[in-house]
């Protein structure tokens, strides 16, 4: 968690979201549940960087709707 916070601290919102997703996938087994967790983390970091009170499924919703994944 500390690595994630350090990595996204000074990043612009979309870069921070991508970094969060990448770190989550790297820290897990890389399976489907890891991808879902990574998308959730990306949306959470994006919301935080934009100053929103809570995350919404922006990135995850769009990627899942298109049938895509992180790979």
Task: Summarize this structure briefly.
With 71 residues, the chain is mainly α.
Shape: globular
The portion of residues forming beta strands comes to under 5%
Q: What sequence of helices (H) and strands (E) makes up the elements?
A: HHHH
The Cα radius of gyration reads 11 Å
Report the strand count.
0
Which regions have little confidence, pLDDT < 50, spanning 5+ residues? none
Structural class: mainly alpha
End-to-end distance: 22 Å
Number of helices: 4
What oligomeric arrangement do these chains adopt? single chain
Mean pLDDT: 77
How much helix, percentage-wise, in residues? 55-70%
Q: Which sheet architecture does the biggest sheet show?
A: none
Describe this structure in words.
It contains four helices and no strands. Helix content is 68%, strand content 0%. α1 (2-8) runs antiparallel to α2 (13-27) and α2 (13-27) runs antiparallel to α3 (32-49). The mean pLDDT is 77. The chain is mostly helical and 71 residues long.
Question: Which features characterize this protein?
Answer:
71 residues, mainly alpha, 0% strand
SSE diagram, text form:
Blueprint: H1 2-8, H2 13-27, H3 32-49, H4 58-65
């Amino acid at each position: 968690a500390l690595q994630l916070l350090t990595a996204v601290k000074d990043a612009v919102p979309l870069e921070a979201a991508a970094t969060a997703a990448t770190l989550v996938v790297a820290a897990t087994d890389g399976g489907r549940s890891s991808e879902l967790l990574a998308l959730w983390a990306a949306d959470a970091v994006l919301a935080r960087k934009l100053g929103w009170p809570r995350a919404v499924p922006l990135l995850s919703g769009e990627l899942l709707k298109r049938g895509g994944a992180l790979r």
